[in-house]
Amino acid sequence: MRIAHHARIFCIAVAACSISFTSCHKNGPLVEGQSILELKIPAFASQTIPPMYTCDGSDVSPAISWGPSPMITSSFALTVVDTDTPFGFVHWVIYNIGMGTHELRQGLPKQASLSDGTQGVNDFDKVGYSGPCPPGNSPHHYVFTLYALDTKLNLPSDPTRKQLESAMKGHALAYGQFTAHYLRHQN
Question: Would the pLDDT of 54 be above 90?
């Protein structure tokens, strides 16, 4: 009897987690899927973004790697969003990363077409990665979200995060997130 009671509580907890996951909220992914991808950004090991990857430095994209994905993965997509702004300020949109790829090298060119993927437009109205450049005296948090998709996406030229997320609906198999922060040092 006691085991059945605990099993029921476990099932209710799992259902509650599923419901909260699929809801649309500021800091979480906006598509369905399971959080099973392990996302690694070695340069951000302390979860602090070094100036090199920001507007205060070279503003280059970091090297990112991830582990295994579901067997039926056809492509990956990645977004980077500053969650300390009212609507989430987008710093990077990249999609149609090949299924056999498990890393992005540092310093990707700021152009739409890459050898393995396509970059969209960020909220600076630029193609590719634009690093943190937060106003004010408080650290901002940047959420890197990688999605494993069951298809390659057909999007218009220079898509935005909103267009990407709309195209991904119903296609996300899994996702992984990495959050890091940055505070500009005022002179």
Answer: yes
Buried b (16+ CB within 10 A) or exposed e, 52-87: ebbebeebbbbbbebeebeeebbbbbbbbbbebeee
The amino acid that residue 173 corresponds to is L
Burial of 89 by CB count in 10 Å (0-12 exposed, 13-18 middle, 19+ buried)? buried
Token couple for 42: 């070695």
Judge residue 145's burial from the number of C-beta atoms within 10 Å of its C-beta, 0-12 exposed, 13-18 middle, 19 or more buried.
buried
Average pLDDT, the chain: 85
pLDDT tier, 15 (very low <50, low <70, confident <90, very high otherwise) = very low
Task: Tell me the sheet residues that pair with 142.
Answer: 82, 180
pLDDT value at 140 more than 80: yes
Q: What is the pLDDT of residue 159?
A: 96
What domains are defined for the chain?
30-182 (3.90.280.10)
- Residue 68 tokens, joined: 């295994």
168 three-class SS: helix
**pLDDT for res 26:** 44
Residues near 73 by beta carbon (within 8 Å), at least 6 away in sequence: 99, 148, 149, 150, 173, 174
Q: What is the pLDDT of residue 135?
A: 87
Which run of H or E residues covers position 76?
strand 75-82
Partner residues linked to 80 by β-bridges: 92, 144
